[in-house]
Amino acid sequence: MPKRLSPSTLHGICLSFIAKNIDHWTGHYEEYHLGQANYLHVLGPFNELNSQLAQDVMNVLIKEQRLSRSCLHLLLFGRALQHLDLSSCNRIVNDEVAGIIASSCKVLHKLDLTNCKRVTSAGFHAIATSLQYLSTLYVTKTNLRSSAAHIIFKNCTELQDVSMKHCQISDQDLMVLCQEVASSKRGTKLKRLDVSYTLVTEMGVRAILKNIPQLQVVDYPSLINCLFDEDIENIESLINSPECYKYKLRSLQCQDFISVSNEMLQAIPTICPQVTQLDLRFAGGFDNSGLCHLAKMHNLKDLQLCCEESEDITFEDGVMPVLIEIGPDLKVLSLQDISGLDPVVICQLCPNLQKLFLLMMKNGKVFNTLGDINNNHPAMTELVELDFWCRNGDDSLSEEALSFILSRSVNVESIGLIRVDSFTTNVLQTILRHNKFTCLKRLSLHECHCMTEDGLSDLLLSSYNQLQFVKLINCLQITRRNYEGWERVAKRDNLNIKIDWK
Description:
The strands form 3 sheets. A 10-stranded parallel β-sheet has the order 7-9-11-12-13-14-15-16-17-18, with helices on one face. It has a 6-stranded parallel β-sheet with strand order 1-2-3-4-5-6, with no helix packed on it. The chain is 36% helix and 14% strand. By secondary structure, the protein is an alpha/beta fold. It has a domain at 12-79.
């Protein structure tokens, strides 16, 4: 049964009281001083709070959508905050707030201004010239433009993680960054840069990759294409060349649909030997022979792959040879619409997975069983998140295969099943005899029409699991009456669980 709600801590009660009565604490400043002048120091009601308490108060106000301009001003003045996330406060964050951050939060390490479009170049200038310890800066979907980007690149020499996604920056701005890195004696500590969905082209990304060799993550839709010069014709000669450039990238992701050839996949293990995450869900143009080259990526921990209808990729001849070589090292695996996908073989070849997502959505693509199911196979003790998606009417995911995986997912915390007809009451009862789901916190069932109220009650009202959230969408045998019955039990027993039924 889900855990019972514990009594609120004194710390939490105090924070809740302050948030509930915030107008009492900020009313005088808002009425007589807000917007009247630019203050260097303010004697306010929160001056006795240390930086961590001020951060806690701000987090509660943001969560409850009670944070106002006056409250933000008073909490920021004179603070030694190290982390500040204002991404959900775009209506009140402007150049004035940016100026207070710059003058008061001198030791700030992480600043998130995502969606704060009221901050102009003047605000970014104040931040860039004052916050010398800033290591993480997120300005996604802001009005950051070339002039502000130049100031940031020139002054924020400690930056390691920068996101400028959906901003008005171009190749010329990245050239300024390259020049700053080349002329600076200290170089740059930049490890992650997000310039996706900007005016930056592949030429600008190539320049960044060449001039900042320590970059580990570059978020750009066609990053894989940027690894190869436009005029290169023979990729094999590139691989065999003693002057072959090796990147230190840890992540390769395709964010838009792009064409990746077999030759490119052949080159990736050589030119990007340190890659731990490879996302090819939006890539096409390769087949089984190209995919098999991924078996050489011995540092790979996260593999995500999707096969379109036109692509000739199968599980047995394309994916399985890769899993045979690197399966034990994988922590995250996502496979979508791969013909002949066998979940049982995946669990046998990838025993250390932490997250597994298997999706079969395209017509003509079905699950398969390649061999006998060995019920003596050891449990997948590392698996914490598991998702299965099927098409309407698809019964290719057998009850035996589903039972095999769920019975061995002894430490799973989140399960999501969409249109899985093999998830029946009998199957669940069989699974519960082998696995009590003692760590389960989240369960989502979408159009699982073979699950009944009796079967689900065995899981929801079990005395073993730690369920906190259950989502039930369009499961035909689960009625509103069932939902209201579970809600009454949760309320009666003071259980810490939320049930969402539609």
